[in-house]
Design goal:
315 residues; mainly alpha; MetI-like fold; 2 domains; two-stranded antiparallel sheet; 14 helices; 2 strands; 69% helix
Length: 315
């Protein structure tokens, strides 16, 4: 009796010896995105890492201008201690927190109201008014500040001169107690239209069937706004608020230019202006780097806290 023999299949030499090449469809996206990744790396990630590294570095210069040598050592948190010991820098952060608490809600409310009005069924020439409200955002911040300064400076401002001549009122837009809100007025004028367009884009994504069903149930414009539009544009409101919180701590051009006509604005009026002064007026780049990291940290904490709060309230 013969025993059955079993045969084993030979390995596929061609399949095991040749490495498969990636398909063009898998490689093409990486080729297309590589320029952006490189630009993002060298213009965003790398500067952040360099600033973070400098914030932990202590630079010692020998000689008046460092001509006898420059040595760098690891400073641990010494630069952060010096930054936090600067009372003017801490005051500038507190000033911007007050600025944001007042200015951001006003701006977001105005942007929301304008968006709802322009997207209402009774709105006339909505395209024209959208462009008109958005136009201030197209004006550079430097020019916007110069334009508004003509309305703030006594002797040039028709508002100040008219109030004094006709009503006997002394209006000082650039005083110590008012200049912060004069800056807030410029920022609100500039960015309300920008935030309005973001909200309008969210409004246009609402299905028309929801409006039709609500009108069948007898809902008026106010009921549509509060029951359908405002709840559904919540992501846009959160996004614009977070952007505004971050932008509040980044104020720089407006106070720097108004400082030429407003003695109440010093060289450390805002956090960014304080870091700029520390770096380029005092040549203390490591402490300025620590200040920049602290500004970014405060912006992150405020944005994160706001997102957590909105997520909790939505539940």
């Amino acid at each position: 009796m013969s025993t059955p023999t079993t045969t084993t299949a030979a390995p596929d030499v061609a399949r095991s010896g040749v490495r498969r090449r990636p398909s063009p469809t898998a490689v093409a996206p990486w080729i297309l995105v590589t320029p952006f990744l490189l630009l993002f790396l060298f213009t965003f990630v790398l500067p952040i890492l360099m600033a973070l590294g400098q914030s932990f570095t202590l630079v010692e210069r020998e000689g008046l201008f460092g001509e006898e040598g420059v040595t760098s050592t690891f400073a641990w948190f010494e630069n952060y201690r010096l930054a936090l010991a600067d009372g003017q820098f801490i005051a500038s952060i507190g000033r911007m927190l007050l600025f944001g608490v007042v200015q951001v809600p006003i701006m977001i409310t105005l942007a929301t109201v304008l968006a709802l009005l322009l997207e209402s069924a009774s709105a006339r020439w909505p395209g024209f008014f959208r462009a008109a409200y958005f136009m201030p955002y197209g004006v550079p911040g430097v020019l916007a500040t110069i334009l508004w300064s003509f309305l703030y400076v006594p002797g040039l401002s028709p508002i100040v001169d008219t109030a004094h001549a006709w009503f006997g009122l002394e209006i000082d837009f650039l005083g110590a107690g008012t200049v912060l809100w004069s800056i807030a007025n410029i920022v609100t004028w500039t960015y309300t239209g920008y935030n309005m367009l973001i909200i309008i884009a969210q409004l246009k994504a609402i299905p028309p069937e929801l409006y039709e069903a609500a009108r069948v149930d007898g809902a008026g414009p106010a009921r549509l706004a509060f029951s359908i539009q405002l709840p559904l544009i919540r992501p846009a409101l959160v996004l614009t608020t977070v952007f505004s919180i971050i932008g509040t701590l980044q104020l720089f051009a407006e106070p720097q230019l108004l400082a030429q006509v407003a003695p109440a604005i010093d060289s450390q009026y805002t956090p960014n202006l304080s870091a700029y002064t520390t770096a380029f007026a005092y040549n203390d780049y490591t402490v300025a780097a620590a200040q920049a990291v602290l500004i970014a940290l405060v912006a992150f904490v405020l944005s994160f806290a706001f997102l957590r709060l909105t997520n909790r309230t939505s539940r």
